[in-house]
Design brief:
- The chain is of the alpha/beta class.
- The protein contains 15 helices and 24 strands.
- It has a seven-stranded mixed beta sheet, with helices on both faces.
- A hairpin with a 2-residue loop joins β17 and β18.
- The protein starts with a strand and ends with a strand.
Length: 473
């Protein structure tokens, strides 16, 4: 059993009030975390504001991020097992996540060195003068960040690394279901030379800690990844602040009749079952053209049988658990509702504690909850479509708008999908969730509000542009 303090401006905070974290596979105790209260939150805020009056140089930020990336690579196996033990995700997934997180740090280190200023000549119009205008960037005063359980390291890295590159102090509240990895990552950042005032990582109660860290007027930006319900609550209550809200998804993989079926099957399986289906960009529904429906379905079922569900710590396992048994029971209920609505179960559907087997259903009603809402698990509902227009009309009629994928060899159809699907991302012959860590990422409609995530966009948003002018005669 692992015990962590909360970290306030570089200092460990110990208390008797502790949060327990359980291993979803067998519900054994993985660790405990000391919770903070309003007094400790105030200490963290004051330390951040005081430290921010003397910000790090660009080279210092770059050096810290590069050192942190090196330390993360050095501790890759340790962190992969820690993620596994608190989230139930299988080792092959958590090992992959640590690699992605190293990329985030490396990309942020590169961006930290880039010049951020522009020069404008003022004598370019009859109303102008012989002057120059120069712009430069300064970090926001303070960022509050809240991260979800499904990527306990990479989601944290996507908040923290851009903040370091931008020079912005951060208050970080990781998910209460998976806080251990964030705290261990914080230790590595301190080891890499990050001043304590730049990052406080903690857990605490909603009313006394989480709500105040969102509403406090000294916080200039709130960055949140999680559910639509909570995201909308933050938008209503945060006040006059910058917001980055990366919310839920209900991503389709559209498979047209000219598609390479072997590729389509591979993408469908990877998109539906990786990370136990617990990704906002996971394939949540397979929209398959009627003329290839039978052949695709047959091949897909056979491929899905190779995705072994089992002990997350077993390296042979492909699909671990979902976050807890309550979530698994909810998914079980969603499947039963789909069957009651007329769907046919082709594979899986069974639950063992917090684990749901890879599950495939066909003849799913377009109004069934399994596709009308975000089903956060390894479920693959198949819906027949007449053509691309049918798929676009169906998807655009919903409230989600995060990501999508289309499998086709017809470039004109691929470009039509990219143009007309109301999503933040459309990937051609790839899963909806494909991206690199530096590219912009985020949704529209209920799937997101504010700036995009991704290292480059996040750094921009964590800074304010200032201008000054001077005579140039």
């Amino acid at each position: 059993m692992i015990s962590f303090p909360s970290y306030l401006a570089g200092k460990a905070f110990h208390s008797e009030d502790q949060l327990e974290v359980f291993y979803p596979w067998d519900n054994s105790l993985t660790g405990k975390v000391c919770k903070i209260g309003p007094e400790q939150l105030e200490q963290a805020i004051r330390a951040a504001l005081e430290g921010g009056s003397n910000p790090l140089t660009r080279y210092q930020r770059h050096t810290i991020l590069r050192k942190a990336a090196s330390l993360l690579a050095e501790h890759r196996n340790e962190l992969a097992r820690l993620i596994c033990r608190e989230s139930g995700l299988c080792l092959r997934e958590t090992t992959y996540e640590t690699g992605r997180s190293s990329d985030v740090l490396e990309f942020a280190a590169i961006e930290a060195l880039k010049d951020d200023g522009e020069v404008f000549s003022c004598d370019i119009s009859p109303q102008g003068k012989a002057r120059k205008i120069v712009t430069f960037k300064q970090p926001v005063q303070l960022v509050s960040a809240i991260t979800p359980f499904n990527h306990p390291l990479n989601q944290v890295a996507h908040k923290v690394a851009p903040a370091i590159a931008a020079g912005a102090p951060m208050l970080l509240k990781p998910s209460e279901k998976t806080p251990l990895t964030a705290l261990r990552f914080t230790e590595l950042l301190y080891e890499a030379g990050l001043p304590g005032w730049m990052l406080s990582t903690f857990v605490g109660d909603l009313e006394t800690v989480v709500t105040p860290m969102i509403e406090d007027e000294r916080v200039e930006m709130v960055s949140f990844t999680g559910s639509i319900k909570i995201g909308k609550h933050i938008a209503r209550t945060a006040g006059y602040k910058k917001l980055c809200l990366e919310l839920g998804g209900n991503s389709p993989l559209i498979i047209l009749e000219d598609a390479d079926l072997e590729k389509a099957v591979t993408l469908a399986a990877e998109g539906s079952f990786r990370n136990s289906g617990q990704r906002c960009t996971a394939v949540k529904r397979l929209l398959v053209q009627e003329s290839i429906l039978e052949e695709f379905t047959e091949r897909f079922v056979e491929r899905a049988k190779t995705y072994l569900a089992g002990d997350p710590e077993d390296e042979a396992t492909h699909v671990g658990t979902v976050i807890d048994e309550e979530a698994a029971r909810s998914l079980e209920q969603v499947v039963q509702e789909a069957l009651s609505d007329g769907a046919e179960l082709l594979l899986g559907g069974k639950r063992r504690g917090a684990q749901i087997e890879p599950t495939i259903l066909r003849s799913v009603s377009r109004d069934s909850r399994i596709v009308a809402e975000e089903s956060f698990g390894p479920l693959a509902p198949i819906i027949a479509i007449k053509d691309l227009d049918d798929a676009i009309d169906y998807y655009n009629g919903g409230n989600f708008g995060l990501s999508s994928g289309i499998v086709t060899n017809d470039l004109s159809l691929a470009l039509k999908a990219a143009k007309h699907l109301r999503t933040g991302t459309t990937n051609i012959n790839e899963v909806p969730g494909y991206r690199i860590e530096s590219s912009p990422f985020g949704g529209i409609k209920d799937s997101g509000l504010g700036i995009k995530e991704g290292v480059i966009e996040a750094i921009k948003f964590m800074q304010n542009t200032k201008t000054f002018s001077f005579p140039w005669e």
